[in-house]
């Protein structure tokens, strides 16, 4: 899988960032080979963190920029916050 499924504006620094869709979050998780629980552990979400990740991927709640940036880094998409 490539990052072709992720819009370039989602890989921008915070001041010009466009939040990703649920499908784009799923694509980053797949690139990182992360389950929801893996992502929650990386992000320090604690108990119920997997549920938070599911809400992001379902589009129920927006993913915070910091969490997105760390997941993108883990997926090999670079340091997007610079």
Report on the architecture of this protein.
The chain is mainly alpha-helical. It has one domain (9-74). The protein contains four helices and no strands. It has helices at 22-32, 36-43, 49-58, 65-74. The protein is globular. The N and C termini lie far apart (24 Å). The mean pLDDT is 95.
In short:
The chain is an all-alpha fold.
Layout of helices and strands:
Elements: H1 22-32, H2 36-43, H3 49-58, H4 65-74
How far apart are the first and last residues' alpha carbons, in Å? 24 Å
What low-confidence regions span 5 or more consecutive residues with pLDDT below 50? none
Instruction: Give me the secondary-structure category.
Output: mainly alpha
Question: Can you count the beta strands?
Answer: 0
Shape: globular
Strand content: under 5%
Cα-based radius of gyration, to the nearest Å: 11 Å
Largest sheet descriptor: none
Number of helices: 4
Mean pLDDT over the residues = 95
SSE order: HHHH
Helix content: 40-55%
Compute the number of structural domains. Answer: 1
């Amino acid at each position: 899988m490539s990052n072709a499924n992720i819009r370039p504006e989602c890989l921008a620094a915070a001041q010009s960032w466009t939040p990703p869709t649920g499908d784009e979050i799923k694509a980053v998780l797949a690139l990182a080979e992360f389950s929801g629980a893996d992502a929650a552990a990386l992000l320090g979400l604690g108990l119920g963190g997997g549920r938070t990740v599911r809400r992001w991927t379902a589009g129920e709640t927006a993913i915070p920029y910091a969490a997105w940036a760390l997941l993108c880094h883990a997926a090999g998409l670079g340091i997007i916050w610079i």
